[in-house]
Structures are given as structure tokens and as C-alpha cells.
Design goal:
4 helices, mainly alpha, 2 strands, two-stranded antiparallel ribbon
Length: 106
């Protein structure tokens, strides 16, 4: 199993564990936004708040794992990069692809 997949599964398991532990202790409606003085001015029900948290985690996982992999497979004509001919030369492209995708996952 690739290292990125292990980190994704670990993040999803931690998210599920957090939801299972914290859900029973949360009030039915919770403050989710505060003004400049610290007073609550936005509220969500617990299921909506947990769904929102899951959506944020999904977007971040996609951004940090999925986008570098997508960018490494793009046609070079679609990439705006200084010295593109040198940096994306076929001899360097394979090692560059590995470096781009490997930096996305610890």
C-alpha cells in the first residue's frame, strides 16, 4: 500500500474516531462563528457541523494528495513554468513526477 494511501486512511480513521468520541458530548446546536469581540453569531446543528468538518477534510485530502498527482500527468503545454523546456524535458520528467507526487504525502 502506498504511503499516501496509508496517511489518507489514517486521517479518515482519526476523523471517524473523533466523531464517535465527541458526538455524544456535543450540544444539539453549537456556535461555529464568532465576531471580533468573541460573541457567537453563527450556529450549526451537530450533524451539519460534523458534515462540514468531513467536507473540509475531503477537500484538503484532495488538494494535498490528488492535485499534485494530477499536475504531474498534465500535458506540458498546459503548465506555465519558467524554463519549461529544461525542467520538463523527458529525461527529467520522470524524476520530477516522482518528486511532485512524493512531496504530497509525508
Amino acid at each position: 500500500m502506498a504511503m499516501a494511501k496509508k496517511w489518507i486512511l489514517l486521517a479518515l480513521a482519526a476523523l471517524a474516531g473523533q466523531g464517535a468520541v465527541c458526538y455524544p458530548r456535543m450540544p444539539s446546536v453549537m456556535a461555529t462563528h464568532f465576531d471580533g469581540t468573541g460573541r457567537a453569531n453563527g450556529w450549526m446543528t451537530v450533524p451539519v457541523a460534523i458534515g462540514f468538518e468531513c467536507a473540509i477534510v475531503a477537500v484538503l485530502l484532495l488538494a494535498f494528495v490528488g492535485l499534485p498527482r494530477l499536475l504531474s500527468r498534465l500535458d506540458p503545454s498546459l503548465i506555465n513554468l519558467p524554463n519549461k523546456g529544461h525542467r520538463l524535458a523527458p529525461a527529467r520528467r520522470v524524476s520530477r513526477r516522482w518528486r511532485i507526487t512524493s512531496t504530497a504525502s509525508p
